[in-house]
Design a protein that fits this description.
The structure is a single chain. With 410 residues, the protein is an alpha/beta fold. Helices cover 49% and strands 16% of the residues. The protein contains 17 helices and 16 strands. Strands 1, 3, 4, 5, 6, 7, 8 and 9 form an eight-stranded parallel sheet that branches. Strands 13-11-10-14-15-16 form a six-stranded parallel sheet, with helices on both faces. Helix 6 links the parallel strand 6 and strand 7. The radius of gyration is 21 Å and the shape is globular.
Length: 410
């Protein structure tokens, strides 16, 4: 049997568990379709990812922003321009060697080439440029792109996005932005994390760390804060943590129990990039210990988090993939977001009214929208149950597209 080789960038096992869900969804679905597959992850956090890697067919290769932007890109360009040096470059650079050997590069960046995020634009380019230089097909897994009004972003997007073999758009708004840019290499899909399958053992695994009797009797509201939202709200003069604390206290006064869960965690550091744990610890400490609040104070796997979220009766999310997990588990969800990427996913369920921007966050408005969600719970539940099968179908379809690229290249 021919071994397929797939290199992945933009996701991780550690830190953001949405990135982990996308990575693991790819490993699951492509292993099912292609059989013998060797995966290589170009990792921003190679040590942490290696510690959490339980896949025998996944290799972790270091590719932090400096390594990617300078070393890997320079060597990939040299590989293109200097044929006599190619074998040497492939031996000495694990990243370039993996790209040369790969049937396809999967770019799993969740949001790329977007106005307002120009500081990430060089990284967006650097993530795919080495593959373009090694002539490796680039498949941009379901993600948000656009808008493209900023001249710098527009020029970069028109230059590099058409070079991808396929760009999977993650919702209507992204698809309209991309078609408006003139892109033809599009597939209207859904986030890869909707394809994530659970083993069935998550409950037993979580029970080693969490008292699951907390969920007995129902009436549990999950709350997932985000340091990204905190920076945006506080930067505009607000108090994100204070608003979340007040909301949880309101839930307690209404007789509800609260699951306080970070969906992006990096163990052993207080750095806040891809790490909501310090924020959640601060919120929990300021609330004071209470039997009505269950705080998940450790790093769990993407499947374990999805299991916990699925035990909730209602969910309030600020992290994008916490929202994906709650929708995938058919839990009625209220979303506090910061870009079109939240609303366009909710649109797939005809539930876009249950998202609002961080600029609207206030104690009164959050309570008002939550009470409206609670009142409409049965209607929201019916829409989730109705639309979820089609969303999962659109998500897993990208695995078929990737497998086709791999087979065509043999």
């Amino acid at each position: 049997m021919t071994t397929s080789r797939i290199t992945i960038i933009g996701s991780a096992l550690s830190g953001n568990k949405g990135a982990a869900a996308m990575l693991e969804s790819a490993i699951q679905t492509l292993s099912e379709r292609l059989g013998d597959v060797e995966f290589t992850l170009l990792s921003m956090y190679p040590v942490e990812d290696a510690e959490q890697n339980h896949y025998d067919n996944l290799k972790i290769v270091a590719a932090n922003p400096k390594q990617l932007g300078v070393t890997i890109n320079v060597l990939a360009l040299a590989h293109r321009l200097l044929p006599f040096a190619r074998k040497t470059i492939e031996r000495r650079s694990k990243a370039v060697g993996a790209l040369v050997a790969a049937d396809v590069l999967l770019d799993q960046g969740g949001i790329t080439f977007t106005d307002g995020r120009e500081k990430f634009l060089l990284y967006n380019i650097a993530s795919i440029l080495p593959a373009l230089n090694t002539r490796t097909p680039v498949f941009k897994c379901a993600q948000a792109v656009g808008p493209f009004k900023n001249p710098i972003n527009r020029i970069a997007s028109k230059t590099f996005l058409p070079k991808a073999r396929t760009l999977v758009t993650r919702g209507r708004i992204t698809h309209e932005f991309a078609t408006g840019l003139g892109l033809k290499n599009l597939y209207a899909g859904a986030d890869y994390a909707f394809s994530l399958e659970m083993s069935g053992s998550e409950g037993d695994e979580v029970a080693k760390h969490v008292d699951l009797s907390f969920f007995d009797g129902g009436d549990v509201v999950g709350v997932c804060p985000s340091v990204v939202l905190q920076k945006k709200v506080d930067g505009a003069g607000g108090d994100y943590a204070g608003e979340i604390i007040a909301f949880i206290e309101y839930l307690q006064s209404a007789g509800k129990r609260v699951l306080l869960v970070p969906h992006s965690v990096r163990t052993g550091t207080d750095k806040t990039h891809n790490n909501d744990l310090p924020l959640c610890r601060d919120i929990y400490q300021r609330l004071g210990a209470s039997k009505d609040v269950l705080f998940i104070d450790r790093e769990l796997s993407s499947q374990q988090l999805r299991y916990l979220i699925g035990r909730c009766d209602l969910f309030v999310a600020s992290r994008f993939h916490a929202m994906v997990s709650s929708l995938a588990m058919a839990v009625p969800t209220l979303v506090i977001g910061w870009s079109h990427k939240y609303r366009e996913v909710l649109e797939m369920f005809d539930l876009e009214e249950w998202a609002f921007g961080h600029d609207q966050l206030s104690g009164g408005y959050l309570r008002e929208r939550f009470e409206a969600l609670a009142a409409a719970r049965s209607e929201v539940q019916a829409k989730l149950d109705s639309h979820l099968p089609d969303v999962k179908k659109r998500s897993v379809a990208q695995a078929d597209l990737i497998a086709e690229i791999v087979r065509d290249g043999r």
